[in-house]
Amino acid sequence: LYRDLLDDTVELRYPREHLPLLFTGKLATPTRILVDVDISWWMKLYFWMFSCYMRNGKSCPTVSLRTLQVYVGHSRMSSDFKPVTKYDAPQDPADISAATAPPSTLFFSMLYESTPSISLDCVPYHTLEECIRQIQSTLAPGTYLTIGLTTRAGPAAHNFSDPTTILTVLPFFPREYLRGRSENKSEGGGSERTTMPLFVTLPRVLGLLTSGPSPLTIELVRNVSAEYAAFLRRSVHDLEDDWEIRDAFVREWGLRAWREERVCTAWEAALVDAGLLAGWAIVVHKAE
Q1: Helix orientation angle between 225-241 and 103-111, rounded to the nearest 10 degrees
Q2: Residues 240-247: contacts with CB under 8 Å, at least 24 apart
Q3: How far apart, in whole angstroms, are the C-alpha atoms of residue 137 and residue 286?
Q4: What pLDDT sits at residue 100?
Q5: Phi and psi for 162 in degrees, rounded to 5?
Q6: What is the pLDDT of residue 92?
Q7: Confidence of residue 102 (pLDDT cuts 50, 70, 90)
Q8: In 3D, which of 121, 125, 116 has the Cα closest to residue 101?
Q9: Averaged pLDDT, 161-180
Q10: Is the distance from CB of 197 to CB of 172 less than 8 angstroms?
């Protein structure tokens, strides 16, 4: 099914309604339809896990000094952090190369206008502690930072052998159309997500942030799954119905790339709607 969608052999007329039902085994027409996971997908997952483990270069996303906002001399209450309720197109249609930034990186960069942000989704899981220690040591005193991450959710969240593992990992695999352009880096870190969402848990991240030589203060923890799903659906809508964005994307990357980005983004939105993925935003503060 997934390959047929990418090849444009099959078209989903109502992916927002049908995919979440399919992922949770509730889709029936009238016979119940279940997803069968081919062993080749497991092999691809294991190879990708190995590739992420062997990844070289920076293991932690950085925060641009140009956008870093430091709040010194006063305390900010968690109620001060107002989420953005409307997400406009993340890039100018003429500069569609910004598509190399993963959807979660774009989303967290726009979630709170008052603080800079990073996404842990592009961090190799085995370097999580190293990355957080780097954040703790480099964050300036008095600085607030939004840390975003995606985690598995639902009853099978901690069962790696469950078939839903493959369903949840599909949109995180490297985009085919970006192969050969891995040198492109988004401002918040690498241009590819890693296996982090498969294994990371919110308690582990919170525990690391509040421990170590330079512990941070947790100001706010929010489940932003609903907002993230809406952001993803808006991205799909723009790719399909905004002719400037659609035409610019096709000119830059090609028609197959447009189909891949549209399918992968709609697939991820459905996983969030089905409760198999969750988005989290953590606002931290480094004491002066």
Answers
A1: 120
A2: 242/89, 242/93, 244/93, 245/89, 245/93, 245/96, 247/93
A3: 10
A4: 60
A5: -70, 140
A6: 46
A7: confident
A8: 121
A9: 86
A10: yes
Could you identify the residue written with the tokens 């006063």? 74
The DSSP output letter for 223 is: E
Cα dihedral sign, 97-99-105-106: positive
Confidence at residue 24, expressed as pLDDT on a 0 to 100 scale: 80
User: Taking residues 261-268, what's their average pLDDT?
Assistant: 91
- Provide CB contacts within 8 A for 138, sequence distance 6+: none
Strands (DSSP E) found in 36-173: 117-119, 144-152
Return the exposure string of 29-56: e unless at least 16 CB atoms fall within 10 Å of the residue's CB, then b: eeeeeeeeeeeebeeebeebbeebeebe
Q: Which helix (H) or strand (E) holds 218?
A: strand 217-223
DSSP state at residue 70: B
**Taking the C-alpha atoms of 254, 260, 262 and 265 in order, what is their torsion angle to the nearest 10 degrees?**
-140
> CA 249 to CA 30: how far, in whole Å?
38
The Cα angle at residue 276 between residues 118 and 115, in degrees rounded to 5:
20
- Tell me the pLDDT band of 73, cut-offs 50, 70 and 90: very low
The predicted model scores a pTM of: 0.82
Residue 186 phi, psi dihedral angles, 5° rounding: -80, 165
Cα distances (angstroms) measured from residue 143 to each of 139, 179, 209, 216, 259? 7, 36, 14, 10, 40
